[in-house]
């Protein structure tokens, strides 16, 4: 069967097609159709010729199968050290086979490769820290996902998520009208407590343009309000765009590279339209990777940079604390054991580990911050990154994957985990629901609002 009604090689382009795919409860028919989906071997060979260049081919050739990457992988460790969970094996048994056979693979192989690429790897790239040849298995699995997506072998939820980006330019069905109304609503809801609070939309030449994760206006509008309150208290001249506000890219998890470019370009268009001095993204790791690290290359920007300086939220928080724009009430500093989750996408992949620890020095009383044994760029993935959190088909494997982070947290003795990343926050929430170990988790924004001093001129009248 070359194409199914739900499972096919055609990207979601319309709201009608998106709703039709959503109507297939849990993707039951989608996965059934996938069993008969033809592999376009000629197209796969052409894609390999066009995109599988010297770096990837060299990595495949020079891998010595030494196994030094094995213990670096949290999925290998928490799955009883199954040899099939060794990063090099995962790559060689999927991408390696596709390349060696020049795309001459069958349906059964492609479904197996899909299982490997989305349930046995989160593309965290921790293994690259340990490879003596500098091979980045995470990058190679990510590339393989793109090949699989092009042939229709992608988890149901991620086909939907990528379709959301194509239809709404957001990972969820949040329209421009929904977004602007949420901004107005959150400003009104909090104006009594913070007089003069506004969420400025489409202000040109502001000092800051703020972008966020679509989950915030869709499910956690208080996060939008918290960002506004902190900018307000810090006296920032800021704005949000009416279009181009969504910073995330589920299409990156799906391997839909065309949609990745479309999504990031939408943000860059907003930057060029409003001309802010700089852009600040929310507490999200993959959003930062998509818009700041990978995005410039997807969009063909020769300097490898976004149109304006673009920083992660932790960088702004550290700056605001350092410069006294936000001041912490000493009496409210945390006086219980607390630990910190390092996000793979802006710590390991963008070097912001010390920035987050600078923030901790303001928020936590000395002696109460406890590092996880593996930390900073060597920290383990939360267990739910790379799209793992959102794929129902692989939920049992994801729950096993949470054990590593559970054990890391328990070893610190801390009951509070600061997690400035949406995927990490979700995974830690889920591990508490799954294992009931008695921990709490938080973003930075609510902590800062509870702990900061409100300037007298910004306090409400009695």
From TrEMBL:
4Fe-4S ferredoxin-type domain residues are 110-140
Name the Gene Ontology molecular function terms of this record. Answer: 4 iron, 4 sulfur cluster binding; metal ion binding; oxidoreductase activity
Top-rank taxon: Bacteria
Q: Does the keyword Manganese apply?
A: no
What keyword terms does UniProt attach to this protein? Answer: 4Fe-4S, Electron transport, Iron, Iron-sulfur, Metal-binding, Transport
Coiled-coil portions:
none
Iron listed as a keyword: yes
Among PANTHER family, the record links this protein to: FUMARATE REDUCTASE IRON-SULFUR SUBUNIT (PTHR43551), HETERODISULFIDE REDUCTASE (PTHR43551:SF1)
- Protein name per its UniProtKB record: HMC operon ORF 6 protein
Which source organism?
A: Desulfovibrio ferrophilus
């Amino acid at each position: 069967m070359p194409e199914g009604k739900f499972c096919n090689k055609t990207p979601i382009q319309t709201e009608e097609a998106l709703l039709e795919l959503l109507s297939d409860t849990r993707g039951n028919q989608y996965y059934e159709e996938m069993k008969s989906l033809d592999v376009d071997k000629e197209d796969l060979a052409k894609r390999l010729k066009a995109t599988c260049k010297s770096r990837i081919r060299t990595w495949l050739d020079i891998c010595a199968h030494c196994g030094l990457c094995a213990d670096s992988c949290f999925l290998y460790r928490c799955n009883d050290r199954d040899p099939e969970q060794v990063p090099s094996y995962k790559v060689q048994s999927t991408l390696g086979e596709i390349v060696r056979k020049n795309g001459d693979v069958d349906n059964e192989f492609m479904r197996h490769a899909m299982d490997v690429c989305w349930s046995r790897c989160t593309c965290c790239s921790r293994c690259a820290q340990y490879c003596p040849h500098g091979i980045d298995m995470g990058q190679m699995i990510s590339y393989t996902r793109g090949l699989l997506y092009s042939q229709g072998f992608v988890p149901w939820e991620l086909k939907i998520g990528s379709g959301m980006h194509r239809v709404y330019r957001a990972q969820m069905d949040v329209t421009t009208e929904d977004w602007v109304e949420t901004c107005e609503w959150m400003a009104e809801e909090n104006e009594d407590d913070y007089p003069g609070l506004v969420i400025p939309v489409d202000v040109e030449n502001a000092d800051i343009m703020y972008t966020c994760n679509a989950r915030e206006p869709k499910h956690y509008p208080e996060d939008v309000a918290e960002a506004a309150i902190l900018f307000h208290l810090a006296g920032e001249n800021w704005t949000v765009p009416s279009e181009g506000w969504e910073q995330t890219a589920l299409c990156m998890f799906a391997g839909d590279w065309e949609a990745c470019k479309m999504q990031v370009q939408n943000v860059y268009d907003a930057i060029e339209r409003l001309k802010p001095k700089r852009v600040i993204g929310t507490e999200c790791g993959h959003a930062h990777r998509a818009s700041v690290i990978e995005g410039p290359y997807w969009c063909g920007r020769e300097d490898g940079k976004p149109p304006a300086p673009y920083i992660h939220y932790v960088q702004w928080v550290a700056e605001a604390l350092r410069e006294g724009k936000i001041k912490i009430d000493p009496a409210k500093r945390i006086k219980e054991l607390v630990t910190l989750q390092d996000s793979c996408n802006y710590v390991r992949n963008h070097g912001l580990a010390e920035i987050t620890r600078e923030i901790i020095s303001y928020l936590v009383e000395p002696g109460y911050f406890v590092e996880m044994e593996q930390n900073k760029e060597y920290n383990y993935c939360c267990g739910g990154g790379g799209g793992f959190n959102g794929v129902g088909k692989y939920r049992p494997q994801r729950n096993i994957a949470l054990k590593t982070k559970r054990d890391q947290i328990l070893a610190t003795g801390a009951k509070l985990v600061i997690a400035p990343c949406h995927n990490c926050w979700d995974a830690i929430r889920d591990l508490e629901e799954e294992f009931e170990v008695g921990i709490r988790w938080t973003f930075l924004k609510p902590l800062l609002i509870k702990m900061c001093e409100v300037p007298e001129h910004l306090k409400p009248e009695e």
